[in-house]
Amino acid sequence: MNCFVHERTAAIGICAVCQKAVCRACVGRDAPRLVCRACLDQRSIQGFEYRSAASIGTWPLVHICLGVDLVTMRPRVARGIIAVGNIAVGGVAIAGIALGIISLGGLSVGAALAIGGLALGLGLSVGGVAIGSIALGGLAIGFKYAIGGGAIGPAVIDGRTCNQAAADFLRQWFGGAILPPRCR
Predict the structure, then answer these.
(1) Helix, strand, or coil here: 14?
(2) Which positions ≥6 away from 21 have C-beta within 8 Å?
(3) Hey, which residues does 173 pair with through a beta bridge?
(4) pLDDT for the residue 160
(5) How far apart are the first and last CA of the chain?
(6) pLDDT tens per residue, range 37-47
(7) Predicted confidence band at 18 (pLDDT cuts at 50, 70, 90)?
(8) Average of pLDDT values for 28-37?
């Protein structure tokens, strides 16, 4: 097998990113995985990373991290007080997969607030599927209050039921205007 760039030169391996054969001259990085120069030069594969100089303990105040680690070929993880990326862990986490005190993402796990397609939290959870103490969503599973199209919990507002405790909670925190007509 020959190099994809130098057709007459024997390849020494295959790039872990693009899967093309490379010769010694085309190798960009060889440990622990072989990566060609073309893939190493492409910022879209490597991604983007910003880490603020200010930090609290070992965590930066802001960490933005996108892309793939070329060494491990795994997605990079943003870790910070404010973390943004494909996967984020932090005080405020914004990502496709987010884990934090306050989290926003496709899959969101938050201690105080979780907002996402699938939102899991100890406090308020809002999403297509929301599971938490107070759950608002298409499918809401609440440990205390559940409000949504399909709601499961001790105090429920859904398409069929309007529990007085859940209605009082909504009135207290969000005003009576958002209550369904049959709950007013």
Answers:
(1) strand
(2) 1, 2, 3, 4, 11, 13, 14, 15
(3) none
(4) 85
(5) 75
(6) 887 777 555 67
(7) confident
(8) 76
Taken as a whole, the chain contains a residue count of 184
- Taking CB atoms within 8 Å and a gap of at least 24, the contacts of 80-85 are 80/51, 80/52, 81/56
Query: What is the spatial distance between Cα 141 and Cα 121, in angstroms, rounded to a whole number?
Result: 11
| Other Cβ atoms closer than 10 A to 102 | 21
Torsion of CA 122, 124, 126, 132, to 10 degrees: 30
Cβ atoms of residues 160 and 147 within 8 Å: no
Q: How far apart are CA 81 and CA 120, in angstroms?
A: 20
Q: What is the rounded CA–CA span in Å between residue 92 and residue 100?
A: 6
Across the range 143-151, mean pLDDT stands at 93
Could you read off the pLDDT of 61-107 as tens digits, one per residue?
999 999 887 667 788 899 999 999 999 999 999 999 999 999 999 99
Q: Dmax over Cα atoms in the chain, in whole Å?
A: 80
- The two structure tokens encoding residue 168: 């009082």
**Of all residues in the chain, what percent are helix, strand and coil, respectively (each to 5)?**
15, 60, 25
